[in-house]
């Protein structure tokens, strides 16, 4: 019938009831600077305001008008894909934590920092002129596959209910967490312009790019830290195809990009670890 609307396309109405009826996963773009939690709160506030809620408090924990969470913290200095769960979709976020992720990381040889990235204070400077492209490619082989990795002190990991990074900033002494098993599916050197180098990484859950770059610097008889970090893929969500930018944080765009709880398993694309080919 002419002028009819397909029943498979939800009507776009800015109402709180429709917003609260959402159940599933979608991806947003996190810019450099704010924490992942801050970005999530901005998203919630934008959606609630659009739905007509006056003076929304996105940080409210109890009796929330909109149930929403993210699946995997991105460091403040990092940007890229942040997967968001809404409604019953928040129950699926654990698969995002353990699933496959892709990153592009720019590292810098010659300087180590306390946070292992460019936001920290320089703790060590060492020469890097002896490092060649072949040296880096050869060392990367040792960091591919199933490996053991010590997480950074400045991280979202917790001790006695508080994040290690918060405890450190408060002046508390924090012991390093023990090394734990992580998986690197692929690891390649994309660009080498000393002191800068660019890595393309695909890894599993619990992996820290900052620890990789720090360990790589040590393995090459120097030191290094992460200068820039972008997450380009998380589970089935990619930066180019799925991540909603801030101007797209509307109910209409969320409805269009939402993967509902019944739309398959986000874990379907786990690749097998492979060694770097030089």
Approximately how much helix is present in the residues?
10-25%
SSE topology string: HEHEEHEEEHEEEHEEHEEHE
Cα distance spanning the termini:
60 Å
Largest sheet: 10 strands, mixed
Q: Specify Rg, calculated over alpha carbons.
A: 21 Å
Overall mean pLDDT = 85
CATH level-4 homologous superfamily of the largest domain: Pseudouridine synthase
Task: Give the tally of structural domains.
Answer: 2
- The chain-level structural class is alpha+beta
CATH class category name of the largest domain: Alpha Beta
- The CATH architecture classification of the largest domain is 2-Layer Sandwich
What is the tally of helical segments?
A: 7
Percentage of residues in strands: 25-35%
As for the CATH topology of the largest domain, it is Pseudouridine synthase
Report the principal-axis shape: elongated
Find the count of extended strands (DSSP E, 2+ residues). 14
The unreliable regions are 1-14, 263-268, 274-278
Question: How are the secondary structure elements laid out?
Answer:
Elements: H1 16-20, E1 24-30, H2 36-50, E2 68-70, E3 79-86, H3 93-98, E4 101-109, E5 111-113, E6 122-125, H4 133-140, E7 145-149, E8 158-159, E9 162-163, H5 164-169, E10 180-193, E11 196-203, H6 209-219, E12 224-234, E13 237-238, H7 251-257, E14 259-260
Parallel strand pairs: 3-12
Antiparallel strand pairs: 1-3, 1-14, 2-3, 4-11, 4-12, 5-6, 7-10, 8-9, 10-11, 12-13
Protein name: Pseudouridylate synthase TRUB1
EC number: 5.4.99.25
Main location: cytoplasm
